[in-house]
Amino acid sequence: MTAKTLPVDPFDLVIFGGTGDLALRKLLPGLLRRYADGQIREDSRIIGVARDKQTDADYRAKVGEALQRVAGNDEALKAKLPAFLDKLGYHALDATKDEGWEEFAAALKAQGDRIRVFYLSTSPSLFVNLCDRLRAHGLNGGQSRVVIEKPIGHDLASATVINDAVGSAFAESQIFRIDHYLGKETVQNLLALRFANILFEPLWNANHIDHVQITVAETVGLEKRATYYDTSGALRDMVQNHLLQLLCMVAMEPPAALEADAVRDEKLKVLRSLRPITADEISHMTVRGQYRAGAVNGMAVPGYLDELGREDSRTETFVALKAEVDNWRWAGVPFYLRTGKRLPERVSEIVIAFKQIPHSIFEHGAGPVMGNKLVLRLQPDEGVKLWLMIKDPGPGGLRLQHVPLDMSFAEAFGVHQPEAYERLLMDVVRGNPTLFMRRDEVEAAWKWIDPILGAWENQRETPKPYTAGSWGPSAAVALVERDGRTWHEDTV
């Protein structure tokens, strides 16, 4: 089975922060793959922008070195790399200074009215300056689009400032707030599973679903993000955007059509239906953790404070919480969310745990009858598992087993599945905002998160320690088990 890739219209893609980690590790490799698959036309241009003084040739050499590592033994990518590098250009610009902007604008306008994508792969503190200068030089009109990365603020007030500033230069229809989790194949397959199969949607409610779990676990520590991370923490960095967006995709009502605003309207309703976690509930509805020295995948790793180079910090590297959606579909169904660094494995998954059957007809010796589960794995191996009860094959009486129907996308389709950034970048070029966050979504998420942050700050408690390589503090286990449930473990 082969995947069809339709070329997009010619475009100019400008990456502010074009020499940064995100550009070299995700954006440019993704664009190379789309070019190799024939989705990017020959007359498109990719322009890196940063403060460093260098020539086009210098930039191509730097990017080429990074992309050689990405291509590895992939002969198709290596064959396309020289032509791809020819599409790259570079401009040295400072977002806070006027020098060079007129020449930059003239170079872009020389191509006429074509699609222009401005990707702000920079610190959010530069978003306002960049948008002001793009507007001042007339680069915000026509088919221009701007892409902004999270974090969009560190609370509701700062998010509003950023949204106001970007919104003063670009119309809402031109703004693409990117959350790469929404570009993952499995997240989009959730829409297909729910709304293209009569098997699931009639059961997708509190009558049949016991609870939902969403886990985003990382094995890495701070890497190169220490300065940012210690002022952010796991709640701001992961829960406010990634995990709440996944919760919305699970919990939303069927949209009237698969159109951008129809989908985003339903996600917004979920965010507005989240029951606030009050200061009185904070201790038994949320868990904060911070990793100590330990071992991950057999390798000794330092603790958070050791990596940070400080004696103390109240920043959480792990969060588990219990969320509830107050509407008719989900009344009484808890959503357990957890995310953290230095956990035992890198995994992102959504678990839909169905209720137990009301009565078992099987004898005790047949074994326990366990509830069905639908497990959607976002990474590292994207796929879907449906856990069912079946008879253990063979003679000797009827014995029950809990086993999965397993579909790995790589094995089922036999083709390279585009990574999230590849898909989302092409959606920006097409002008399709379905998988991007609207302003009111971002602000509704902060309205729910802010009281949690405030309650933690008022408590003045330090995060609970957990050993690197474990699944977080023991309190995270208690959070689920006090409700008579347990975190899902994939044993197959």
Folded structure, characterized:
- This protein is an alpha/beta fold and 492 residues long.
- The chain is built from 16 helices and 17 strands.
- It has helices at residues 21-36, 56-71, 75-86, 101-109, 127-136, 156-169, 185-195, 226-230, 234-251, 260-273, 282-285, 304-308, 409-413, 420-430, 439-459, 474-481; strands at residues 11-16, 45-50, 88-92, 115-120, 144-149, 175-178, 209-217, 286-292, 294-296, 299-301, 318-324, 334-340, 347-354, 373-379, 383-391, 400-408, 464-467.
- A hairpin with a 3-residue loop joins strand 14 and strand 15.
- Helix 1 (21-36) packs across helix 14 (420-430) and helix 2 (56-71) packs antiparallel against helix 3.
- The model has no long low-confidence stretch (mean pLDDT 90).
How many helices? The count is: 16
Low-confidence stretches: none
Class per helix and strand makeup: alpha/beta
Strand content: 15-25%
Question: What summary fits the major beta sheet?
Answer: 9 strands, mixed
Distance between the termini: 27 Å
Q: How much is the average pLDDT?
A: 90
Q: Which word captures the global form? A: globular
Radius of gyration: 24 Å
Order of strands, main sheet, comes to 16-15-14-13-7-12-11-8-17
Q: Which helices and strands appear, and what pairs or packs with what?
A:
Blueprint: E1 11-16, H1 21-36, E2 45-50, H2 56-71, H3 75-86, E3 88-92, H4 101-109, E4 115-120, H5 127-136, E5 144-149, H6 156-169, E6 175-178, H7 185-195, E7 209-217, H8 226-230, H9 234-251, H10 260-273, H11 282-285, E8 286-292, E9 294-296, E10 299-301, H12 304-308, E11 318-324, E12 334-340, E13 347-354, E14 373-379, E15 383-391, E16 400-408, H13 409-413, H14 420-430, H15 439-459, E17 464-467, H16 474-481
Parallel strand pairs: 1-2, 1-4, 2-3, 4-5, 5-6, 7-12, 8-17
Antiparallel strand pairs: 7-13, 8-11, 9-10, 11-12, 13-14, 14-15, 15-16
Helix pairs in contact: 1-2, 1-3, 1-14, 2-3, 5-6, 6-15, 9-10, 9-15, 10-15
